[in-house]
Amino acid sequence: MSDMNALLDPARFADLTTRAARDPETFWSDEARRLEWIAPPSHARNGRGWFSDGLLNASANCLDRHLATRGDKVALIFQGEDEDTVLRLTYRDLHAQVCRMANVLRDHGVGKGDRVAIHLPSVPEGVIAMLACARIGAMHVVLFGGFSAEALADRLADSGARLVITADMGRRGAKQIPLKATMDRAIALRGESVETVLVVAVTGEDAPMTPGRDHALTPLLEVASAACTLEPMSADDNLFLLYTSGSTGKPKGMVHATGGYLLWAAYTHALAFDHREDDVFWCTADIGWITGHSYLTYGPLANGGTILIFEGMPSHPHPGRWWDVAQKHRVTTLYTSPTAIRALMREGDDVPARHDLSALRVLGTVGEPISAEAWTWFSTVIGKGRCPVVDTWWQTETGGIMIAPIPGSGTAKPGAAMRPLPGVQPILLDERAQPITGAGEGVLCITNAWPGQARTIWRDDALFCTTYLDPYPGYYFTGDGARRDEDGDLWITGRVDDVINVSGHRIGSAEIEDALAAEHVFAESAAIGIPHDLKGQGIVVYVVPRETAAADDAERAEALAKQAIAAVGKRVGRYAAPEQVFVVPDLPKTRSGKIVRRLLRKIACNETEGLGDLSTLADPELVPALIAKILG
């Protein structure tokens, strides 16, 4: 196992990269020793599987193995919305809490392979529930608190979850989010598999309870045992199911296996963030996203770290709230999104300047490419020029970080993803699927397998193959484009498929369009992403009404636009609401009927010079008509 408890210099980084590429079997077998195994594996890779004959338990790797040496070390710090609400759990405390939760799940019939849906705000019970599922071999299915009832229902039905853990309410600044009521609507829609609902009291507000099905969780935990036998798991056994949007309307349930994923989370956390024993690691992501899985939960805890969970928002109830938290809890590593950084920049440099951020040692970004301006501000204003900025590229499907400027391994460039981690071999392909050598721009693919790679799509392995493996045979297709500069450093240029990245959340255009198709008033629609100064990308929707005259009636068009926004909020979630809706008589299409989204993006961005040859369109005259209607 490589020593990653100190900054890597360029020579050591190059040596790791060479060893991983030359003999991956030996490299990953050695790295597997960073985990604790019930039965050690005899090999690393076996087809799509990793460490297949090894036995382990993810919960034990995050908790039990630390009890002898770190039992009294703080594992989890919770800072509530209220400044005075602070909870510190040692590894011994967290272990006991997880065992109690696991026993409650077992008491309600949950066993190995069952799916448990977790629908919670940023409270400790989320992490506790994930580790409790892992302890007994159940698959957790974490559902983002911002999903609508319809979006939750789709995921409940697809996963077949038999038990749900939700909360009475969630807090978002001054607002309260009715999580339990939303989940009830979801279960009523398509939650036939759900037998039990456990309710966490976050605010203490009354929540609707269905007798026989719904139970307050706290009283059950109070009488549950703090000891719980663990389930030995094959490294190939499923650990969790997490949904991500893609270019099809149906969200894809990505399945991650226990051994390979856990190793990848621990390995990348240690390497990318130069993890040290006394670190306080603050990943600001919601557990509803993969970042919250890998770097709020599994990676740091497998490495014996201290994690921070904050219930509140960056600037509520006042600007600088995040910096209050970082100062109070002496945060050493801050991992957040470019969207959050841009919002914090708007508050002014004087706000963080009023805080003692001297404990910060490493800064990280995730979710979308970061601009040079935001990168520089993060580095100079927050990091004072002394903290490495780790701009990470990875995906739900990859399980953890793939490309990033590793601290100490070389000079980072503002906005560049830089170099792959040891064990990752990216390649750029041109439009003929030929490798691009030297500087150039193309489709980003991965040439080799790695332990954190998703195993499949839940109940649809054929879709996994057609989405990731078949487009470029012999390679893993990321769906992203990238540019390699003259120094060999990589810059991510964005999605090459129909996926929109809003504040780091991937939203498939088809998911938006399916939501609009459910409204009978719309004959057709197209959702696109355009640059947004805060969110990275914003959603713009073009809708074609069934009433042919409606597009030319300003009052009717305004009402239809509002209906479109409400439809997306209802069926997908408010986080996916369009920035603009254009009500138009038709959409530009090829003669074969394919919508030309490139033209819709250019019109929405007011980039009408150089639209290219329009003669191949079914109706070339439509484009100037759309420009005149939308741009005037």
From TrEMBL:
Statement: the UniProt record of this protein carries the keyword Transcription regulation: no
A Pfam family of this chain: ACAS_N
Residues of the AMP-dependent synthetase/ligase domain: 64-449
Domain Acetyl-coenzyme A synthetase N-terminal: 15-62
Keyword set, alphabetical order: Acetylation, ATP-binding, Ligase, Nucleotide-binding
Superkingdom per UniProt: Bacteria
Gene3D superfamilies xrefs: 3.30.300.30, N-terminal domain of ligase-like (3.40.50.12780)
GO CC entries: cytosol
Cross-referenced SUPFAM superfamilies: Acetyl-CoA synthetase-like
Similarity field: Belongs to the ATP-dependent AMP-binding enzyme family.
NCBIfam families: Ac_CoA_lig_AcsA (TIGR02188), PRK00174.1 (NF001208)
Name this polypeptide is given: Acetate--CoA ligase
Record organism: Tanticharoenia sakaeratensis NBRC 103193
